[in-house]
Amino acid sequence: MRVLTTGGAGYIGSHTVLALVEAGHEPVILDNFANSSPEAVRRVSELAGREIELIEADLLDAPAVDRIVADGNFDAVIHFAGLKAVGESAAQPLRYYRSNILSTLNLLDAMQKHGVRNVVFSSSATVYGEAGTVQYTEELPLNAMNPYGRTKMHIEQILDDLAASEPGWHIGKLRYFNPVGAHPSGRIGEDPRGIPNNLMPFVSQVAVGRREHLNVFGDDYPTPDGTGVRDYIHVVDLAGGHVAALEALGDVRGSRAWNLGSGQGSSVLEVVRAFERAAGRPIPYVVAPRRDGDLPEFFADPTLARLELHWKTERGLDDMARDAWNWQSKNPFGYGTGEEDPEA
Predict the structure, then answer these.
(1) 279 neighbors 317 (Cβ within 8 angstroms)
(2) CA–CA dist 215, 99 (Å, integer)
(3) Class of 2-180+232-260 per CATH?
(4) pLDDT digits (tens, 9 = 90+) for 258-267
(5) How is the chain split into domains, by residue range?
(6) d(C-alpha 296, C-alpha 134), whole Å
(7) Which of 8, 174, 221, 333 lies in disulfide reach of 338, CB 3.0 to 4.6 Å?
């Protein structure tokens, strides 16, 4: 399939583009590089053994999006593009609603107009909010607790309404949990702008010397070691989940959601210990107060993805830490030089 991949230069997008090539598909990257780097596209092309087609454009530019879809002869779309920092979304809600939802409406308008009816949407486990349970299934009600999560939730609802309004749509919504790690080559990986919002890239930057220590937010939760427990998924496994969803769309009538996760949790300190093993050095950390809204423990029930997509995770926590360290140690400042890094 010829697949328009919005946000395809980003962390998950770049790994998925490579997985699409390896599966025999033809991805086309659309990205505005607001939170990604052209260097990622160059490296994906290097790993793929051929140049990946790139369109530099902004999904908020509706006429441009319409032209791209009209001229692209696409069979499907995988939609990653969007802003994704929870804390930033609370500080800048209008920016997040505008960027994430309006861009998606522009994309769906163009798809509807030009007859592209297959789409895989990059959603998130944040759509569940505080579900009142430890293991999350797709049947749980959606109750996102922050503007970022609500943009994902509202887009899912838009997709459901679109599918109900018009036959012929094949829509997959992938709710994934905590993507970590990097491609085993160390050529592509996670390169967050500014201070990382997530645990493993922060640990990586401590290990490589960009930051002095990790803050562990709470060590008095009702978990085995007192720290929060989350479901971590290797980004290469996650990329494979997108390919599996794309290839299953023909069997989907309307809109369907799948959790992508390992089905088990790891604590903050377990992640730290795994990274210490991978890097061969201690990771200094300081225990800080709990953050508002943090849950003690939750993880995915990935049964539906296993049954319907024939997909499951293959890589464990040590693999995630090893590949994340391989990427970070070879690229201490990500795709950049470190000249603009505040900790350099």
Answers:
(1) no
(2) 30
(3) alpha beta
(4) 999 999 999 9
(5) 2-180+232-260
(6) 9
(7) 333
pTM attached to this predicted model: 0.96
Neighbours of 307 (CB within 10 A): 10
Angle 11-22/235-248 helices, nearest 10 degrees?
60
Among 328, 317, 309, 39, residue whose Cα is nearest residue 14? 39
Please tell me the chain's helix, strand, coil percentages from 3-state DSSP, rounded to the nearest 5: 40, 20, 40
Active-site residue identified among 11, 128, 148, 285: 148
Count of all residues that appear for the chain in the document: 344
Q: Is 285 a catalytic residue?
A: no
The three state secondary structure string of 183-246 is CCCCCCCCCCCCCCCCHHHHHHHHHCCCCCCEEEECCCCCCCCCCCEECEEEHHHHHHHHHHHH
Residues 152-196: tens digit of each pLDDT:
999 999 999 999 999 999 999 999 999 999 999 999 999 998 888
